[in-house]
């Protein structure tokens, strides 16, 4: 049997907590659900911004300007 690393166990517990936070909406709208909702939206937008930067802005703007191509 392999031992679980501490970070894996922590990740499992965070996932369980966030699942219960989302499912708590079935009871009523509460602060735990609002926390999980805002966390999901924030992480999603952060991922989208970083993905757009590294796949669009950096290759087409930053690297082109650093190579000396100042005019299109």
Question: What does it look like?
Answer:
α1 (6-23) packs across α2 (31-66). The protein is 75% helix and 0% strand. The protein has two helices and no strands. The N and C termini lie far apart (60 Å). The protein has 72 residues and is mainly α. The chain is elongated, with a radius of gyration of 20 Å.
* Low-confidence residue ranges: none
User: What best-fitting shape do the alpha-carbon axes yield?
Assistant: elongated
* Residues in β-strands, percent: under 5%
**C-alpha Rg, in Å?**
20 Å
SS element count, helices: 2
Describe, in short, the structure shown.
By secondary structure, this protein is an all-alpha fold. The protein is 75% helix and 0% strand.
Write the layout of secondary structure elements.
Elements: H1 6-23, H2 31-66
Please describe the structure with a list of short key phrases separated by commas or semicolons.
single chain, 72 residues, mainly alpha, 2 helices, elongated
């Amino acid at each position: 049997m392999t031992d679980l690393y501490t970070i894996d166990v922590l990740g499992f517990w965070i996932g369980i907590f966030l699942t219960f936070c989302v499912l708590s909406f079935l009871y009523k709208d509460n602060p735990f659900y609002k926390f999980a909702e805002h966390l999901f939206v924030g992480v999603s937008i952060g991922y989208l911004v970083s993905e757009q930067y590294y796949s669009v802005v950096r290759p087409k703007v930053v690297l082109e300007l650093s190579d000396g191509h100042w005019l299109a």
